[in-house]
Amino acid sequence: MRVVVGLGLLMLLSVSCAMGPDYTRPALETADTFRMAETEGESIANLPWWDLLQDEALHRLIERALRENNNLKEAAASVEEFQARLYTARTAFIPQAAMTTNAPVLGRLNGFSAPGFASAFSYYGQGTLNWELDLWGRIRRSTEAAQAELMAREENRRAVVLQLVSGVAQSYFDLLQYDLQLDIARRTLLSWEESVTIARARVRRGVSAKLDADQFEAERANAAARVAQLERQMVQTENAVSVLLGTNPMPIPRGQALTQQVLPPEVPPGLPSELLQRRPDILRAEQALVAATARIGATKAARFPRLSITGLLGVASPQLSNLLDGGNEFGQAGLGLAGPVLNAETLGFEQRAVEAQAKQVLAQYAQTILVAFQEVEDALVAVRTAGTQRQAQEEQVTALRSALHLANLRYTGGITSYIDVLIAKRTLFEAELALASTHRLHLVSVVQLYKALGGGWSPEQSLARL
User: Fold this and answer.
1) Tens digit of pLDDT for each residue in 372-382?
2) Single pTM value for the model
């Protein structure tokens, strides 16, 4: 008879199904190609970062950040936490056993102390067994949710690595921009100081008006202010990079100059559908949706009775000397059924709350995808236009240098006043600073595109390089 009951329970368990909806990826519209894509081919996101970025000094900075950055350490520890939570959730599938002993060695008053009966007045040892049969899938859905939460943490760790690589690279290019602009500003400052000296001498000889000297002095002060501004921005950026490296503020070593940085000849983004499979924040949002969907089933199953197999086995005696003698054993086995009664309505509201949470997570998932496509398109147009803008500004700087040279010649020959030199020198200064910014913009746009596409590498692959 017991064998029949056992087989019946196993059959009942095997045919039971998990309550609640099974997760399916929402159907969201995606275009066949990116709007601003100019080239086709394998996405640059398939490149590891050390192949995309060609500066060895930058490589060393990124490698140090991947070893020492505290945000990445936090993300890795979060993965370990949710691995443990998943293991905890899985233990609900197996029988839960416990052991209890009692020894009234400190004395006792008169009380019921019959042999074979565990009480506070007797010596006893007992073991209990409880095994919940997951008829409605509550445990399975809870485990699904725990698994999805772990995967979300894994994707969060990958997102932190991608953010770290792109953040160090962009800040490094900022430093190279400040280096170049600071060199331009210092050269311009020196040139204005020479102009001020000349203008003052001409005023003393009565050749020029004091107005000319005042204008040159104003331009010299403007260049000096720009030098101070760039020096401040450089140190502050070095401090920010130091934090990414997990260290106190320090000077950041440079490698190649801004204009020597190598850019990939083409930056194909690949297919839009690949973005859903690659970008970590999208995958993280999807795993959050998986977990929210699973929790609907777990909450729904909690409204139904729980069936458990329970068992108790032990020995008890008023005297320790005969604890193990025959007749002191006790035990039982049976089925337990527990279900909500007065709190059934509360559990119903809880299910509605979890379903509403799933709707929120679905909206967040859809919004994450929209933002991802926006960032890719923004980066694509930035890469395309930055190259064109840089070429035009290079032509502008070349023309302005020629104009400054001619203005100096005309002024030396007495053909024009020094105001033409002043205007030419001022315009060239601003154009050279703008060209340096565009050089940096072009590099950063490629990095931003790489980040927006999700970067085709894993944290394990990146850390294995260290």
Assistant:
1) 999 999 999 99
2) 0.82
